[in-house]
Amino acid sequence: MKIAFFSATKTDKKFFEYHSAPLLLEFVFLEAHLSATTAPLAQGFEAICVFVNDDLSEAVIKQLATYGVKLIALRCAGFNNVDIEAARQHGLTILRVPAYSPMAVAEHALALMMSLNRKTYRAYNRIRDSNFALEGLLGFDMFQKTAGIMGTGRIGLEMTRILTGLGLNVLVYDHFPNQQAIEYGAEYVSLETLYQRCDIISLHMPLLPETHHIIDAQAIAQMKKGVMLINTSRGALMDADALISGLKSEKIGYLGIDVYEQEENLFFEDHSEEIIQDDAFERLVTFPNVLITGHQAFFTQEALTNITQTTIENILDYQQHKIKHERCVLCD
Fold it and tell me: Catalytic: which of 33, 96, 234, 327?
């Protein structure tokens, strides 16, 4: 089977070629993001493999079906960029990687927390300039502070384990409580209570209609002055304009994000010689208490190995008509 990889990087090529060597699979790696413009590149392929910011809207799905594509293998967990109903109507199978390394994402969220708190990113630049002054680098003890975790799936659960282990008081929110979180020492509370009591809030939720802009002006107004907000899930969980207002008013004391609502036009590319046209993003990077990384929370050797192996297994299972239910986006 020939599979076209969209949004492919050198790292993707390295991992997939290494793990597919003994298999009868032919991979063609394309740097282009999938869109209505680039969809014709899928002609001649029965399957394509895509990433988080590839466009799988109704128009693109229809094009792919016309070209004879039967399988879309997502090398990621989220599928909010996929028009599920259009895929169903055109008979395309969509498989994903439901879990690759919750530790990778949770540990990156922790890194954002600690870097923002102790301002290590600012200290690093100061030392390179031979500036050893400590003014402006004051942090706080995280021990016994109250952290809120929104979403207790695999990643949120790992975040709970880490933060309770560090001695924080952990409050959690989820429509579907997880007994393991309670065993770790966390307490399930309402969203309002979490907002009001937490010094640090970390988001680990999927992007759904009901979670879109769950962090908005109204939510921020309920939070403690100087709250730390961390988002390693999906950019659209947060309203960027509300974040800017919260930072300007100092209601938000620290902001760490690995995702951004309009990231498909920014992340995974080198824009260093361009003028960024996203005014909200450009405003965010001007704040000294904002730390942004470019969707790298998943980017560990272990996570990429799991993503690669699961994606290849998905393709082989499709060939052999053995679809894994938990990996099939369209399974009922």
Answer: 234
The model's pTM is 0.90
Q: Which of 33, 75, 204, 295 is catalytic?
A: 295
Q: Which of 158, 261, 263, 264 is catalytic?
A: 263
| Whether residue 234 lies in the annotated active site | yes
What distance separates the 2 farthest-apart alpha carbons in the chain? 64
| Per-residue model confidence (pLDDT) at position 181 | 98
Provide the pLDDT for residue 332: 53
pLDDT for the residue numbered 96: 94
Q: Candidates 3.30.70.250, 3.40.50.720, 3.40.50.740, 3.30.70.3270; correct CATH number of 102-292?
A: 3.40.50.720
- Encoding tokens for residue 211? 């979670």
User: CB neighbours of 246 closer than 8 A, spacing ≥ 6?
Assistant: 217, 220, 252
Does the annotation count 263 as an active-site position? yes
Q: Mean pLDDT over all residues of the chain?
A: 95
CATH class belonging to 2-100+300-327: alpha beta
Q: What is the mean pLDDT of residues 77-95?
A: 93
